[in-house]
Structure prediction request, 170 residues.
Amino acid sequence: TLNAPGFFEDKTDVASVDEFPWPNPADHIDPEACRAAAEAAAGDRAVLGVLWSAHFQDLCAAFGLQVAFMKFYDSPELVEAISERIVNFYLEANRIFFEATKGKIDAVLIGNDYGSQTSLMLSPDHVRKFALGGAAQLIAQAKSYGVKVIYHSCGSIRPIIPDLIELGVD
Prediction:
């Protein structure tokens, strides 16, 4: 989906954010299924919940990757408004999961791809501005439920590893 045109590809007005049919996480998550899966995994090993919560990748897909990278420069308010909606979706989806699995999981995996083979896809400052704020909220939420956070990113992300550690990634 990153190479396909996104819904917001041609949008410039922040008001267009309300035109999109944003999904309700509660319509797509069965808390009982989450609870049952966590209980079934319990035993003598750590239980990992794979939440993924790819807010940055979804943000890029909202425009199409190349257009997204241009929008970071010429329409930052629009980018931030869409990012907020996406992060809020994941915060609510993850809340449902965490409540259903409270005390039954040890860690979660969250992931967003920030790197290419040799460096970040964007400058460290742009990753901090457009991605790590959402990551911080997702990490803090997981920590508030007492679980460890494993953070995945493909590519070379060396310049922001200290940022992820500072945000609480284990």
